[in-house]
């Protein structure tokens, strides 16, 4: 079955230790992963600081990250502004403990 919607992987940021060079991981062990076939907000949040959301979209979409994210708003009080992601694009974002991701089609 073809991928539809938006996928987000929540994982620890990779090994940033000096001297690892090309062998350093970009992402470490995942905490959770969600594929959302229609616009919604993740049911899980970042468990701690130092976590990355890796986002992949099957269609042009807007997404927002925060404690109460709203991807329909260009900006909002107490949350980050929404961002655009193209179909097939992958974006990594550092997030804070308790952050969730919301998305809608562009």
What does this molecule look like?
The chain is an all-beta fold and 106 residues long. Helices cover 0% and strands 43% of the residues. It is built from no helices and seven strands. It has strands at residues 6-13, 27-36, 51-57, 61-66, 83-85, 90-95, 100-105. The relative contact order is 0.28.
Entry summary:
This protein is mainly beta. Helix content is 0%, strand content 43%. The protein contains no helices and seven strands.
Task: Record keyword descriptors for this entry.
43% strand; 0% helix; four-stranded antiparallel beta sheet; three-stranded antiparallel beta sheet; mainly beta; 106 residues
Shape: globular
Kindly report the average pLDDT value.
88
Beta content comes to: 35-45%
**Can you list the strand order of the major beta sheet?**
2-1-3-6
Radius of gyration: 14 Å
The tally of helices reads: 0
> Structural class, from helix and strand content?
mainly beta
Topology:
Blueprint: E1 6-13, E2 27-36, E3 51-57, E4 61-66, E5 83-85, E6 90-95, E7 100-105
Antiparallel strand pairs: 1-2, 1-3, 3-6, 4-5, 4-7
């Amino acid at each position: 079955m073809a991928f539809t919607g938006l996928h987000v992987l929540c994982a620890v940021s990779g090994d940033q230790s000096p001297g690892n060079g090309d062998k350093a991981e970009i992402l470490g062990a995942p905490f959770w992963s969600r594929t959302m076939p229609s616009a919604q907000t993740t049911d899980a949040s970042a468990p701690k600081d130092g976590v990355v959301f890796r986002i992949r979209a099957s269609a042009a979409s807007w997404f927002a990250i925060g404690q109460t994210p709203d991807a329909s708003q260009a900006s909002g009080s107490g949350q980050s502004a929404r961002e655009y992601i193209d179909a097939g694009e992958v974006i990594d974002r550092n997030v804070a403990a308790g952050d969730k991701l919301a998305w809608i089609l562009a």
